[in-house]
Write a structure and sequence with these properties.
With 189 residues, the chain is an alpha+beta fold. The chain contains 4 helices and 7 strands; from the N terminus they run βααβββαβαββ. The protein has a domain of 125 residues: Gcn5-related N-acetyltransferase (GNAT) (Aminopeptidase, 3-Layer(aba) Sandwich). The N terminus is likely disordered.
Length: 189
């Protein structure tokens, strides 16, 4: 999966005064930047990363039907989410998105995905570090499968704690919602 950075549009959907501090990437070697997912080529590249990562997650969870795998390029491009991308050199290797939490308690990390061949090399840590740096002054939430132990470890390292568990889907998958308390006034999303 090679995404040419020249075709990725950046910065449009985050307020221009917001910059991701280099320290947020925790010396992982990945560069994290806001992405303009409304650009078709950028939406295609985000979607490609999501499909690779979600296929891996579905296998990890033992799911045959996995709703995130039904998401289309058009869904990405028309989303109200704010996207960040993790780059290794000029290759998009991961993406995260945030939007308002459904319970109205802050922002929800709607998606945090890394190309499988780049997993466990720091891209996810860079993305979550950037999300926390940008939005961590307010409460953050995220949900994942209970069996997704790598994701649960990542979120725990960044201060997320369990809120609740439930089963969802055709072949019920146990999900978990995590919360990270905010540290002050929240940036506008």
């Amino acid at each position: 999966m090679h995404a040419d950075a020249r075709t990725i549009k950046v910065g449009r959907y985050l307020p221009p005064q917001i910059r991701i501090p280099a320290a947020a990437c925790m010396n992982t070697g990945f560069r994290v930047v806001p992405l303009d997912h409304r650009s078709v080529s950028t939406a295609q590249q985000i979607h490609a990363v999501q499909m690779l990562a979600y296929a891996r997650e579905a296998a990890l969870l033992g799911a045959v039907y996995f709703p995130p795998l039904t998401r289309t390029v058009q869904d990405v491009g028309s989303s109200d989410e704010h996207f960040l991308g993790a780059f290794a050199r000029d290759e998009l290797v991961g993406a995260a998105s945030v939007w308002p939490d459904e319970d109205g308690v802050g922002l929800n990390i709607a998606s945090l995905v890394v190309v499988p061949s780049w997993q466990r090399q720091g891209a996810g840590t860079s993305l979550i570090g950037a999300v926390v740096a940008l939005y961590g002054s307010g409460e953050l939430t995220v949900q994942t499968g209970v069996k997704n132990l790598p994701a649960l470890r990542l979120y725990a390292r960044h201060g997320f704690i369990e809120v609740r568990r439930w089963f969802a889907g055709r072949e019920p998958i146990e999900l978990i919602k995590l919360r990270r308390p905010g540290a002050g006034p929240q940036h506008a999303a």
